[in-house]
Structure formats: structure tokens, C-alpha cells
């Protein structure tokens, strides 16, 4: 729902003119390349065209997420998904072949073009013409998911409220209100569960077929190659085990602290939330933005400058309303050189932290753009991106008194942010394990899926929780996680990067100025490097081995104990 005078993206290409778009791409295929310099010029021309297309596609997608009920916006978005995306998939393969088959391809400068070469070679390896309609269908199912979740309302005290409003009630200090909100959410999930099961069943089968067509045994193995991961499947399984061994016991001890503070005998599902605050941190979005601007400014003037710029230029959409897609994200507008932050949250501690998190992504995007110009898609490795979003949260830990001026409230807010650090180590990792199971067992039933989700949840984030009587409710709650539908296997990156962010917090506690400078250096680092090299520039290590997991768990506990 664009506001008057707030056109936040550039439409330099008319995606409705399919023949015109195709002609421009076809023109690239007809160019003769007879030297390394000509190949470099061709790559720049290709990049310029693809960025124009990408910005228009991104703008249309954000428009749809902002208002899933507007028929014109939806029509534009569906045209992109059903017509433009298949066209791009087809031509991407041809452009990749032209580039990789050029006799000058291997003469390109390795530090500058190495990552791009590896990504293109992977795409050629994975591309199958017969997968294009399957991927289009996959996008259609994701659109259906967004529509269902965007239109989901819950009756609350006689009024229909957007689903995020009920989620925010899980932070309420009154335990009875939290329990009521939990039951309301589970009731909402039950209403949409048949649709969610049908969508997920079809997604699993589609994705399994995509993997088989590309020569893989399952979609999990396919995605590890597609993501060009710099670690193995076994590394992930080891990480799952290391966290269960070293982080879960610390998580249970933290739960005991919360149980004591709540004065309860049993820790129930509605207690496993940010519930120690007396009130939401803000009442209206303007107040949220005022406070976050101040917090960012106290961390670094550049952070505040970027936030204020985004606020002034209509690049933030943060309130909750009916028809708005769920969740929150930050996305790049490559031609404009801007980033857009979308969030559908009601006033809550989580929504405050989520905005700071997304601003970490935004700062990363602006610094990379300033240092290296418009960024291609292949640079967006989640292990890197999430380091700067988690890192921004933890760099802001000592400024939460802007929203919680009373000393005990401030301490509780810090405890809750550190609790979130635990959950971002544990929850996404459990979600990763859940997806390993789903896609290596593609013939599973909806009932088996719910049972597996409950089993994994109980091993990890719900380990200290008394779940008696709520096994079925917990089992179906996977339906509320956008990642499982729209960005499969984008989960473990949160956990890996949280280990890096905790190292950043450790550095910040020793030398704040140096830690912030290292953060900015890493956030603007040359993205063609390995993930490990970018982490090193940020002053931390890309490491999720058992010793590091154990050490960071102990550090996290110590920081919590320091807030006495």
C-alpha cells in the first residue's frame, strides 16, 4: 500500500511488456565476446539489466506483502511470479552458459569474480528445464500462504484482531492473559491447519521432484549445493548435537531463573516468552522509531543516520494491520542503493528487537553498497547477513534503558534480549533439524510431521517447559513459521551467526569503540571473500565447533549473571 509521495523503488523497466523484457535479455545473448575486457563489460551490462528487473520485482513483492488484499497489487505480483520469473529462469541458464563457456571465463580476476564463477557453475549444474514450472508452482503456493496468514484474525475481547496482535499478548506480564493469548493462537492455527498441511504436503513433493530432476536423492542434498554452503551436512548434525549438549543445560538454568521470578511451580508454554516487562515498550510506531533512532545514535552516528534517512524516505513499514503479510524482513533495492524494512508487529518487546535486528541488515546493505556499488544476488549469504543483524541487537543491549528507564525493567529487558540470544541459537537449529527430517523423509504424513516437530521442539527450545496436554498444539505450530514455506533451509544460519554475534558482544564489553569499528569494517567488507574471511574482518571467528559452542554458552550465562 504505497503512500502518496512515497515511491520507494525505481521502476526503470516495464515488466508488463514481456516481449520488451525478453528482447533486452536476448540482446545480451547475441553479444560477441572476444577478450577478457569484453567479457567484463558484458558482465556489467548483464548486471545493470538484472538489477533493474530485480528492483521492480522487489518493489512489487513488498507492495503485495504490505497489502495482500489489493487486487491490482496482487495481479502485478502474480504476473511477476507466473510470467517474469519463468522467463528469468529460462534465460538465466542461457546467460550462465554463455558466460561459463566463454574462453575468457577462467581468465577473470579470482578475488573479484571467484564467488560469481562458483555460483554460476553451480546454477548450470542444477538447472533443469523441467523444474521451471515446478518452481513457479512453488511460488504460487508461497503466495497462498502469505494471503492466508495476512488475512488471519483472532477474536479478542469482542474484536477481530490481526494475528500479530495476539502474538504480542504472549509478552503480557499477567499470566492469565498470556495463557488466554496462547489458546487463541492455537485456535487460529487449528482453523488454518488443513490449508497449511495441504500447502506443505505439496511443497515437499514439488521440492523433492526438483531435487530428483537435478540428480539428487533428496531436496536437502540439493539445497546444500544450491546454497554453495561452506560447510557440510555432517557439520550441521554435529552442531545440532553440540547445542543439545552444551546450550540446552544452560537454557534450562535460565528457565529456572524465570520460573523463580514468575513465582510459578511449572513452566508452561505461555511462560516461555518475553514476559517480565510490565508494559509494551511503545504504544505507537512513531514512538518506536524515535526511540530506536536514539539507541542507534548512541551506538554509532552512521547507524542513526541510515535509520533517519529510511524513515524520511518511506523505507520503513512497521505497524500491524489487516491484510498485511506476517513477519518482518529487510530487502535491498539494488538500483536505488536503498534498503526497505517491512514488519507486521504489534507493540511488544519482540517488535522492538526485531526492528533493531532488521536495521543490522540495512546497515550491512548500505555499507556494502557504499564500498562496492550495487550488489548482485549471489553476495547475500545468510551466514554473513545474520551476523550483522544479531550483532546490531547485542551492540544495543546497553541502550535498552531508552525504552525501559526503570532500573529493574532495564535489567529485565537485557535478560530478555539475552534469552533471545539463547533462542536464536536453539530455535533455528531445531528448525534446521526439522527440515532435514522433512526432506529426507518426503513421504511423511501430516500427522508424522506434527509428531516430529513436537519431538524436536521438546528436545530443544521447549526442553524446560511442561508441555502436558499441549502436545498436539505444539506439534502443529510449525505452520506459523514463514521460513519453512518461503525460504527452506534458511534456519541454521541464524544459529551459526549468533555464535559470531556473541563474540562481537564479548569484544564490545572489552572495547566498545573498537568493536563497533570492526562491525562496520566487516559489514562493508568485500563480499567475494570466504565467510570466514568476512567474519575475521569483523573481529570474530566463523566457527561452530564444540569448543566454541561450549565457550559462548558459558559467556552468555556469565553476561546474564552479571545483570544482578
UniProtKB/TrEMBL annotation:
Protein name in UniProt: M3 family oligoendopeptidase
Family: Belongs to the peptidase M3 family.
EC number of this enzyme: 3.4.-.-
Transmembrane parts of this sequence: none
Keyword GTP-binding recorded: no
GO molecular function, one term: hydrolase activity
Needed cofactors: Zn(2+)
Pfam families membership: Peptidase_M3
Hydrolase found in the keyword field: yes
Peptidase M3A/M3B catalytic domain mapped to chain residues: 169-524
Record key words, sorted: Hydrolase, Metal-binding, Metalloprotease, Protease, Zinc
NCBIfam families reported in the protein's UniProt record: M3_not_pepF
Cofactor note (record): Binds 1 zinc ion.
